[in-house]
Amino acid sequence: MENILSVKEQAHAAYTASHQLSTISTEEKNKALLEMADALEHRCNLILAENQIDLTNGRKKNLTASTLDRLMLNEERIKQIADGLRQIVSLPDPIGSGISEFRRPNGLDIRAIRVPLGVVGVIYEARPNVTADVIGLCIKSGNAIVLRGGSEAIHTNKIISSMLAAAAYTAGIPAGSIQFIETQDRQAVADMLKLRQYIDVIIPRGGKGLINYVIENSTIPVIETGAGVCHAYVDSSANMEMAGNIIINAKTSRPAVCNTIETLLINKAIAETFVPFIIDKLQAANVTIKGCPQVKALCPNIEDAVEADWSTEYHDLVISLKIVDTLDDAITHINTYNTKHSEVIITENYQNARIFQQKVDAAAVYVNASTRFTDGFEFGFGAEIGISTQKLHARGPMGLTALTTMKYLIDGNGQIR
Amino acid sequence: MENILSVKEQAHAAYTASHQLSTISTEEKNKALLEMADALEHRCNLILAENQIDLTNGRKKNLTASTLDRLMLNEERIKQIADGLRQIVSLPDPIGSGISEFRRPNGLDIRAIRVPLGVVGVIYEARPNVTADVIGLCIKSGNAIVLRGGSEAIHTNKIISSMLAAAAYTAGIPAGSIQFIETQDRQAVADMLKLRQYIDVIIPRGGKGLINYVIENSTIPVIETGAGVCHAYVDSSANMEMAGNIIINAKTSRPAVCNTIETLLINKAIAETFVPFIIDKLQAANVTIKGCPQVKALCPNIEDAVEADWSTEYHDLVISLKIVDTLDDAITHINTYNTKHSEVIITENYQNARIFQQKVDAAAVYVNASTRFTDGFEFGFGAEIGISTQKLHARGPMGLTALTTMKYLIDGNGQIR
Fold first, then answer.
1. Which residue intervals define the domain Aldehyde dehydrogenase in the entry (chains A, B) (predicted)?
2. How far is CA A287 from the centre of its chain?
3. What backbone torsions phi and psi does residue B29 show, to the nearest 5 degrees?
4. Over the stretch B30-71, which tens digit does the pLDDT of each residue have?
5. In chain B, which residue's Cα lies nearest the Cα of A108?
6. Which residues of chain B does A379 touch, with a Cβ-Cβ cutoff of 8 Å?
7. Pick among 3.30.110.10, 3.40.309.10, 3.10.310.40, 3.40.50.1820: CATH of B230-377
């Protein structure tokens, strides 16, 4: 048994490091990121050996083929992870940049500038690439980090994080800035979620169960990410070809991710022609279709959609269809069942486009484009730390600025009140 | 016994109203605020009658004179509350304003715009003016509101909120937008803190006990406000007169509020002259002084500062003094004991000013000015919903924009990924 630090000691070390890390220059941070990327590539074999242990354990535990695939690394994938760190170098450093600056009538000069949050806690499930992504984004934004990964990838995550921590330290990043919690004891997560004095934010990345556990148990502020029950609404004036292309793309291009659509709402005025048209297309793409009674009346050879379907994120080639009477009914359905992630209307009607964008409550509201674009890279933000589905602090794809807060600097010459 | 709605029903009503309220125009919101202000003045006597009940109960409960004074309303104070609502009319409406706008290479146009948070929950203690302030700021920013006030002011808060709700409704604000929880059952607060599906943020305004209870029990995101253990550090190069004026102002102008200083750190190089100088001034202003052993060696006729003093917010004419060896020691002391509210260095040394502003972790870091300026009005933001002492979402004085989030609107012509 190794002699490992307690979660509290690790968080305290990160907290101590964060005060120094917040003042490190962009040049130093970039240099460290490049050396961290090199370290992963140079010692690629060590990572692959640890990854083999996780894969062997995973097969014993009968993990699904897709989970094993997400877990599996090879030389090319490690190069991709290293390149991800190099891409972070090219992103602008938000730290120290001005948000606003003004002079008060009494002569006080007030500046609001961006500063790091301090210590970022991330609790995540299987994917090893998250380890490097999150460490890279935190270092670039001057934040210390406490990571807790899932048991499936524990050996891989451990070697990646310790390699990155060592390379960062050698490159001048304060010792203790990168903390990986090694114990698989579940109590470690419960402990971590109460360390409000050391950790400034918790970002859970994983399934609904993990996210809800974190929300219910954390006294540290949480940024909720990832749950996506997204909708497409086909308005009566929609261009049918365009609607078909968008729906097939938004449902089938990567069905397991959060920005795919789960429910398709169709205006009754075009249902008679559109429903058979889209069902043909979806079936040709191997999508299982569930329908409300009105949809089934038009196409009986599909499954029944039940109440639970409207709030289900399938993570799979499954979609539920519903016919609605009006645009307002579509908006009400969406605001009732959505996770406030991404929503799209397909329409040629200007007023309806505008009303949909105003009234639908979601991070990203589209007109005539696939919801699959809700993504840090697609928005042009570079790497992302996650997609926020809550309203506080950050909403939608979170780039580096989501890992910052601000501070007012006030300069005077003796002003009193 | 009245037939009152459950907390859940009230929060649901606010949630339903919030969808309509989010699209109300600035003109309509301003008209409502003016009518709400008039309602308070026109029916002033009704408020005073209810206020008398609270005051009578308060005297029976032996509330302190200062608590009774904060609770007490008269015609002039009601006029001030009404004028507060009128001032909110003159603040710019943040809703709908653009944050950024860009075109992606694939032709997608992406706009980030400000939208209301949705439903704001406020849990507060005695002061009745908070009721009107908070309702006014929420209505102006398009948010529905669920209020839970303290028992001391229950009759006053109930009449003010019901008058404002009635006037708002008459002026076209959606029914249900303003919810005041009338029951004094403590379970109501516990219930409120779990209504994540309806309430977007909880802002506690009150003492440490209330704030900690909310943080520990809420599954809704919380904005922490108000705790203030603030410091002044007198550098070796400080202008002594200026330091004296700032310290006296920051300690004595309103000792009960959060932006006063609680601890004074003095560089040892000037301690011999500065300590007697400032102790004279503080004693002349009736301030009780506690000192570290080095301070006591210079001026024995003061109390001992013990470990607990360094993290105590006195809310009173009390200050603790400590001599530090270096600027770095001062910064370390501050970052160890502060509540990340407001901190000041008094110095004539450019480098030291810069280092202090960079390294001290607080919402507002001053050079040569009183910490008492950390306030929405003093910063020029107009009325404030509170002063955030956390790092997520909002930091420092929170004006109307702290009550907003953003939404991406994406316009395309059939883009798929």
1. 7-287
2. 25
3. -65, -40
4. 999 999 999 999 999 999 999 999 999 999 999 988 889 889
5. B369
6. 104, 110, 408
7. 3.40.309.10
